[in-house]
Design goal:
The chain contains twelve helices and seven strands. The chain is of the alpha/beta class. Strand 5, helix 10 and strand 6 form a beta-alpha-beta unit. It starts with a helix and ends in a 12-residue tail after the last helix.
């Protein structure tokens, strides 16, 4: 039995709701997560305010991608927080990437991973402040110096950028990311603040994809907003409150609740490109029966076919992850 099959079978039916719909959803998500990519893809997690759960979200998603994908996945901690994404992903305590001239002149994948520690999920770990001597977030220049020479050897490069001021260095974050995941707390004010950042990110010349992750870090439950922003091309994924994440040590994904694991799977799928030779018809989410789904723009003002597909199939945004009790 594969790890994926074990995950599906171990999920309590009461939490899965409609079994066939949920199994279809998780199957579609897993197919997207494992789909080959034509080129290396850079994913950046960023938050406008601290305490939104960006590091834990980036860590679990990066670990999931490393576990499920056949190619190499690199996790980069640029947040310099005491519990950054690498700690969340299970990187050995005190481990740090050893200095390596081979990485700076890499010609093969074996050179690119030289000196990099690896987590149990298979995620390669690179901290931009390995000694934890600075409380400030890492400068984007350090990211480009360390990551640019090796990024092409990895299927995915997942970076936790920490808290960034959109007026100062959000442009650098966007320049280093093909997909930007804006992480915010699952409350009305934080969600609106995240939605307000979307135009600034999309106006960048590189035109990155944008995903919003709303993390319930305070057990807000149904107090979370139902809709976020008015851009149907931006998936919004809700990560429910999970008491297991509130402890003082990292926990494996197996210790998380079923709804949490499903939410991380949805988010991982939303962060990957829609286009592909074997793209499934449904991407990442099945709405519960009482969810009316996202509203669409008028027929004469609808976006392109790709955007309609993202709105119809990919967008997990309005799924209420609190519909089933723990």
């Amino acid at each position: 039995m594969s790890a994926f099959e074990a995950f599906v079978r171990s999920a309590p039916l009461a939490l899965l709701g409609s079994v066939s719909a949920r199994v279809h959803e998780v199957t579609a998500v897993d197919e997207i997560v494992r789909r080959p990519l034509p080129v290396s893809r850079r994913i950046g997690f960023v938050q406008a305010r601290g305490g939104a759960g960006a590091s834990s979200t980036a860590g679990y998603v990066a670990a999931l991608l490393a576990r499920r994908r056949p190619g190499l996945v690199l996790g980069v901690d640029a947040s310099r927080g005491p519990r950054g994404m690498l700690w969340q992903a299970g990187a050995p305590v005190g481990s740090a990437a050893a200095p390596s001239s081979r990485r700076r002149t890499a010609r093969r994948s074996v050179d690119a991973v030289d000196g990099l520690p690896r987590t149990p999920s298979g995620l390669y770990a690179l901290s931009l402040d390995p000694r934890g001597e600075s409380r400030a977030v890492a400068a984007a220049a350090g990211w480009f110096d360390e990551v640019t020479p090796i990024s092409r050897f990895f299927d995915l490069v997942v970076t936790d950028w920490g808290v960034r001021d959109w007026r100062a260095d959000l442009t650098d974050v966007v320049s280093a990311s093909r997909t930007v995941c804006i992480v915010a707390r699952a409350d009305r004010h934080a969600a609106e603040e995240a939605a307000a950042l979307v135009p600034a990110v999309k106006d960048h010349p590189d035109r990155p994809d944008v995903v919003i992750a709303l993390v319930d870090v305070g057990d807000a439950g149904r107090a979370a907003p139902v809709t976020v922003g008015d851009d149907p091309t931006v998936p919004v994924v809700r990560v429910p409150y999970d008491a297991a994440r509130s402890g003082g040590r990292p926990v494996s994904s197996a210790a998380l609740g079923t709804r949490t694991r499903i939410a991380y799977g949805r988010l991982a799928a939303a962060l990957l490109p829609l286009d592909g030779p074997q793209a499934p018809q449904a991407r990442g989410t099945t709405r519960p029966a009482d969810d009316p789904g996202p509203t669409r723009p008028p027929a004469d003002d609808r976006p392109s076919e790709r955007r309609r597909a993202r709105d119809r199939d990919a967008r997990p945004g309005v799924v209420d992850d609190q519909e089933a009790g723990r």
